[in-house]
Protein backbone atom coordinates (compact mmCIF):
# COMPACT_ATOMS: atom_id res chain seq x y z
CA UNK A 1 0.00 0.00 0.00
CA UNK A 2 2.77 2.40 0.93
CA UNK A 3 4.69 1.78 -2.29
CA UNK A 4 1.54 2.32 -4.35
CA UNK A 5 0.91 5.65 -2.65
CA UNK A 6 4.52 6.71 -3.24
CA UNK A 7 4.21 5.78 -6.92
CA UNK A 8 0.97 7.76 -7.22
CA UNK A 9 2.60 10.78 -5.56
CA UNK A 10 5.60 10.46 -7.90
CA UNK A 11 3.28 10.37 -10.91
CA UNK A 12 1.43 13.44 -9.65
CA UNK A 13 4.72 15.25 -9.01
CA UNK A 14 5.86 14.34 -12.54
CA UNK A 15 2.60 15.67 -13.97
CA UNK A 16 3.01 18.90 -12.01
CA UNK A 17 6.49 19.31 -13.50
CA UNK A 18 5.14 18.74 -17.02
CA UNK A 19 2.39 21.32 -16.56
CA UNK A 20 4.87 23.84 -15.11
CA UNK A 21 7.02 23.41 -18.24
CA UNK A 22 3.99 23.95 -20.46
CA UNK A 23 3.11 27.08 -18.49
CA UNK A 24 6.63 28.45 -19.00
CA UNK A 25 6.41 27.78 -22.75
CA UNK A 26 2.99 29.42 -22.93
CA UNK A 27 4.30 32.50 -21.12
CA UNK A 28 7.20 32.68 -23.59
CA UNK A 29 4.71 32.45 -26.45
CA UNK A 30 2.64 35.28 -24.98
CA UNK A 31 5.76 37.43 -24.55
CA UNK A 32 6.75 36.77 -28.16
CA UNK A 33 3.27 37.53 -29.46
CA UNK A 34 3.22 40.79 -27.48
CA UNK A 35 6.64 41.78 -28.80
CA UNK A 36 5.48 41.27 -32.39
CA UNK A 37 2.21 43.13 -31.82
CA UNK A 38 0.02 40.07 -32.35
CA UNK A 39 -3.16 39.06 -30.55
CA UNK A 40 -2.48 37.18 -27.31
CA UNK A 41 -6.06 36.29 -26.38
CA UNK A 42 -5.91 32.64 -27.47
CA UNK A 43 -2.51 32.14 -25.87
CA UNK A 44 -3.79 33.75 -22.67
CA UNK A 45 -6.78 31.40 -22.69
CA UNK A 46 -4.39 28.46 -23.09
CA UNK A 47 -2.36 29.73 -20.13
CA UNK A 48 -5.50 30.01 -18.02
CA UNK A 49 -6.44 26.43 -18.90
CA UNK A 50 -2.96 25.22 -17.93
CA UNK A 51 -3.22 27.02 -14.60
CA UNK A 52 -6.56 25.31 -13.92
CA UNK A 53 -5.01 21.94 -14.77
CA UNK A 54 -2.11 22.66 -12.42
CA UNK A 55 -4.51 23.57 -9.63
CA UNK A 56 -6.47 20.34 -10.11
CA UNK A 57 -3.32 18.20 -9.99
CA UNK A 58 -2.06 20.06 -6.91
CA UNK A 59 -5.37 19.41 -5.17
CA UNK A 60 -5.24 15.74 -6.16
CA UNK A 61 -1.70 15.45 -4.79
CA UNK A 62 -2.57 17.20 -1.55
CA UNK A 63 -5.62 15.04 -0.93
CA UNK A 64 -3.68 11.86 -1.74
CA UNK A 65 -1.05 12.57 0.93
CA UNK A 66 -1.82 11.69 4.52
CA UNK A 67 -2.32 14.73 6.72
CA UNK A 68 -1.18 13.08 9.92
CA UNK A 69 0.53 9.92 11.09
CA UNK A 70 -0.69 10.22 14.68
CA UNK A 71 -2.39 7.03 15.78
CA UNK A 72 -1.17 4.90 12.90
What does this structure look like?
With 72 residues, this protein is mainly α. The chain is 81% helix and 0% strand. It has helices spanning 2-35, 41-64. The model has no long low-confidence stretch (mean pLDDT 88).
Helix count from the secondary structure assignment: 2
Number of strands: 0
Question: What is the CA-atom radius of gyration, in angstroms?
Answer: 17 Å
Spans where pLDDT lies below 50 across 5 or more residues: none
Q: Estimate percent helicity.
A: over 70%
Provide the residue-averaged pLDDT: 88
Order of helices and strands: HH
What is the global morphology?
Answer: elongated
Structural class: mainly alpha
User: How much beta, percentage-wise?
Assistant: under 5%
Biggest sheet, open or closed, and with what strands and sense?
Answer: none
First-last Cα distance: 14 Å
Topology readout:
Layout: H1 2-35, H2 41-64
Helix pairs in contact: 1-2
Kindly summarize this structure in a few lines.
The protein has 72 residues and is mostly helical.
Please name the defining characteristics of this protein.
72 residues, mainly alpha, 2 helices, elongated
Amino acid sequence: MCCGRQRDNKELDDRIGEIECQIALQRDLIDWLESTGKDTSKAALGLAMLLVMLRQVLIARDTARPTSTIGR
